[in-house]
Amino acid sequence: MANAPKYMAVQGAALIVAVALTVIGVLGFVPGVTSGVDQLSWTGQRPGALLFGTFAVSALLNIIHIVVGVAGFAGARTYAAARAYLLVGGLIYLALWLYGLFVERGSDAHVLPLNGADNWLHAGVGAVMVLLAITLAGQHDPTKRRPRMRRAASH
């Protein structure tokens, strides 16, 4: 396959998601972009800090975004790793969405300050990542050789 692209679309998608998540995580620590940074806690149910004045953040949630983002840079190196990153990362964000919806506020299990905006963001990010992993899977891995089809001899 001499004409195989160096990078597949799934790798590009993983890289774009990685950049976005890493930037979001870092911005959660930046005064001005995040209001109430002086009230940023490691965990907790009550949002003291709001990214873009909308999304509740904590140090733990920012670090989750950064870690998942950085994992995407490593995952984007190969076709298979990029697909796995998008799928597993998407499932992580869908789990965060479900956590925000179903973990009772006030319970000891509720350690992240999630609000409605966070829940919608996590649902969207998770769905897009899983969708990218599935739809871009239609491409063939350029590192795996496909057997050549032999032409039947014509009579």
TrEMBL record:
Q: Which UniProt keywords apply?
A: Membrane, Transmembrane, Transmembrane helix
Identify the domain of life. Bacteria
Q: Which residues cross the membrane?
A: 12-30, 50-73, 80-100, 120-138
What this protein is called in its record is DUF4383 domain-containing protein
Organism the protein comes from: Mycolicibacterium chubuense
Q: Which taxonomic lineage does the organism of this UniProt entry have?
A: Bacteria, Bacillati, Actinomycetota, Actinomycetes, Mycobacteriales
